[in-house]
Amino acid sequence: IIVVGIYSAFENFYGKKLDWKLIAVSFFGVCISFSVNMLFAPGLFSYMKDIIFGVLYDTIVGKKINLAEGSELYPTNVFDFIKANTLIIVFLITAFTFEILYYIARKKKKIETEILEFKQMRTMRTSLFFLSIAFLLGTFISRRNGDFFFIFSISYIAMAGNIFINSMEIGSDLVKKSLKTGLIISILFLFIGNFIFLHDQISSGGSYSNIQGAAEWLERNTKKGEIVFNPTWNWFTTLFYYNQHNYYIAGLEPRFFYDYDPGLYWAWWNISNKGYLCQEEQCSDTQAEQQVSLKNDKRKNEWYLNQGNLVADFIKSSFKSNYIIT
């Protein structure tokens, strides 16, 4: 709806009447898709309220909590993002600056003959540019907006770059062809570079076989439906793949866990990551006691014994689990 709205606004700006049919079809299409989704996933609106908008308010707007969710949900430093994608930003700004100057020159009649390609797709190009900027700014809210920024910005660069090169007063077709080829190679480099980066990230991850053995042992040696305390939600998919015999404390979306019971969520988080029992996000007193105790051998042993007993009792009584996978 946003994409169609921006496109229609610029279509109107360039002198064409609003296409209400296009806007209406897009709006009703989205409504129908929501309705169909509700038939197969009745919890869709609940998911949007608790997860999507819950993340937006609690972790971004309200700055209340910081849950162990995917990092793509959280804001990024937009200046670091621009620095990491300098080539795209340079192409984007250069191409759009040309369009603005060309548009002004045409209005002042400094250019007699308008480039046909410039006029034909200007609504689409302007829409793509402003969508690129919108999603670039959207990285202040969530890194996920960066994915949409790449789609719209590269589409815009591909369309505007061709016109920019053709409009240059270069006598040699060989030079024009070289510039076009260089632009295409640069864009391909961006895609290939990102692909290689993702490949390295995935291939450097831990082996699934490390979890496979534990999951299969649990399936053989526990009763069906018994609960397993897993200290990280990242392992859930692999555990579930090899063992649907058991239930697990943390699943695909930790925010469901937090919405169900914040106290239990923070107990799970602190046990798994800090090594002590605390049912709040900030546990200053417990953390201070831990730091003091670990500096002394005698107090360290006492700390581990006391916290170990507290953690074990809590896992058995509150999480109803007799098994921990680490």
What would you note in describing this structure?
With 326 residues, this protein is an all-alpha fold. β1 (227-229), α11 and β2 (247-248) form a beta-alpha-beta unit. α5 crosses α8 (145-167) and α12 (254-260) crosses α13 (262-273). The chain contains 15 helices and 3 strands.
Biggest pleated-sheet summary: 3 strands, parallel
- Major sheet: order of its strands? 2-1-3
Order of helices and strands: HHHHHHHHHHEHEHHHHE
Tell me how many strands there are.
3
Question: From the alpha-carbon coordinates, what is the Rg to the nearest angstrom?
Answer: 28 Å
Tally of alpha and pi helices: 15
Low-confidence stretches: none
User: Mean pLDDT score, rounded?
Assistant: 81
Strand % is under 5%
State the secondary-structure class: mainly alpha
What overall form do the CA principal axes indicate?
elongated
Give the end-to-end Cα distance, rounded to a whole number of Å.
46 Å
Helix coverage percent: 55-70%
List the helices and strands and how they pair.
Blueprint: H1 2-13, H2 20-40, H3 44-61, H4 78-84, H5 86-107, H6 116-120, H7 122-138, H8 145-167, H9 173-203, H10 209-221, E1 227-229, H11 236-242, E2 247-248, H12 254-260, H13 262-273, H14 284-293, H15 297-317, E3 321-324
Parallel strand pairs: 1-2, 1-3
Helix pairs in contact: 1-7, 5-8, 7-8, 8-9, 10-11, 12-13
